[in-house]
Amino acid sequence: MATIQRFEDLEIWQEARRLFNQIKDIIIETKLKNDFKLKDQIKGASGSVMDNIAEGFERDGNLEFRQFLSIAKGSAGETRSQLYRIFDSDYISEDKLKILVNEYEQLSKRIAAFISYLNKKDFKGNKFK
Question: What mean pLDDT comes out for the span 76-86?
Fold first, then answer.
């Protein structure tokens, strides 16, 4: 595995960004844009996934990175819950709901696998050198 130099190189960050953009498109293309509280909540939660991956990476510490990955995973779950609210409010179809819920579940699994991988590493991070 190649050494990752920037958070933008992480596949989980790239996937989180792709999913954020799908949420953003739903906001733009549906009446969700007028449901200000729910719109802001899902936009914040979906953005938090990618932001916490980035922030954890930039902390230069394995322990902190794992903590921020855990927060990102939690935000992915929060986004999934909000997708059900968006579906129940008739902003998206059941097919769209199923696709996005599945994609967020897969992202959560990938984040969990990455946390598990980091748990097995002795590297503490640059800040501890």
Answer: 98
What is the DSSP secondary-structure string of 38-101?
Answer: HHHHHHHHHHHHHHHHHHHHHTT-HHHHHHHHHHHHHHHHHHHHHHHHHHHTTSS-HHHHHHHH
> Is 115 part of a structural domain of the chain?
yes
Question: What is the number of structural domains in the chain?
Answer: 1
Q: Give the CATH number, domain containing residue 86.
A: 1.20.1440.60
Could you tell me which of 37, 23, 11 has the C-alpha nearest to residue 96?
A: 23
26 is a domain residue:
yes
With b meaning 16 or more CB within 10 Å and e meaning fewer, what string describes 7-28? beebebbebbbebbeebeebbe
3 in a structural domain: no
Contact 100, 20 (CB under 8 A): no
Residue 121: what pLDDT? 79
pLDDT band, residue 123 (cuts 50/70/90) = low
**Are 83 and 104 within 8 A, CB to CB?**
yes
Residue 31 domain boundaries: 9-120
| pTM of the predicted structure, to 2 decimals | 0.91
